[in-house]
Write the structure tokens for this entry.
Amino acid sequence: MQIPHNEITGVILAGGKSRRMGCDKALLTLEGQPLVVHVRQALSQLCPRVQIAGERTDLAAVDLPVFADKYPGSSLGGLHNALQNTVTEWVLVLPCDLPFPSPQLLQRLWKHRADVQAVIPRTAFGSDPLIACYHRSALPLIEEQLAAGKLRLTALMERLKVKYLSEEELPHGWRRALTNLNRPQDLKRLQAPPPVLTLVARSGTGKTTLLVKLIAELTARGWTVGALKHDAHKFTIDHEGKDSWRMAAAGAALTAISSPAKTALIQNHEIEPSFDQLVQPFVGKVDILLTEGFKRSSLPKIEVCRQELQHSLLCRGDYEDPTLLAVASDTQLSLDVPCLNLNDPAAISDFIERRCLT
């Protein structure tokens, strides 16, 4: 939902020179569109007016004006541009090199603007004053600093009344929403398949229960998590008589259902896809992929074990699996891999972060 036009302007900060990347970051392509288009679309969800701060006439459009920096060469000059060339009380600013700009994060920034001059996310990695919301009253202080040659944003933050949003106050997926691309290796990492971890166990041990808890825990920590379940039997997710079922029954090999909130893709195949093929839809969209099953694969694994079932381990009993990272059990076991507390998903998530996400 857009904010009234007289209250806020969205500003894309595009004054950088992309020296570390070696090419124009604003025009790097993700899912068929330049990053600057992704950023504009996110800002447009809230802001009736969006404009560009920086000498980028090549990005201008009828409904996307561009304003050159009066003080080029610094992030502080970009903020000056954003506030000087708007008539609204507030601006939402985003850099042009964000691959995953989040309207939900922007809404959260806007929500906390009462009685402050700036709203800025702050995590264990630091604050991010270029993904933020600023009030026009900050402009005189910015001009004063620029005139004095004091270009540090931290110096400005010390003079403003700032609301810093903690990790707990940020929406799900905040890690990706705060990610920008500075170097070629950042782009390479984004284009690579995500780290994968699979949970294995004998039937009825509770691997799905643990998987759900881990998804919730990692999501609460700001990670974007994908999930993939392997079913050894045939399954159906559409039902006889439904439109999608009728389309598939008529011969459609690929059927999709889409809404503003989600999209589902149903594909028929005669030969089960390889795991590499299954992972492709997750590339660039999640930080980690958690799977259930695939017990005979070469994927890194955590095996789930419950004492009351008195089952021998799959990966240290039926066969010796070199890809076993740990066992999650409700009793302590003497093993050559860590034995994690099955009833402590936070501790298991700590282990996953250490092994897969750092």
Summary: The radius of gyration is 24 Å. The chain has two domains: 8-185, 193-236+270-356. Residues 193-236+270-356 form a domain with the Rossmann fold fold (CATH 3.40.50.300). The longest helix spans residues 207-220.
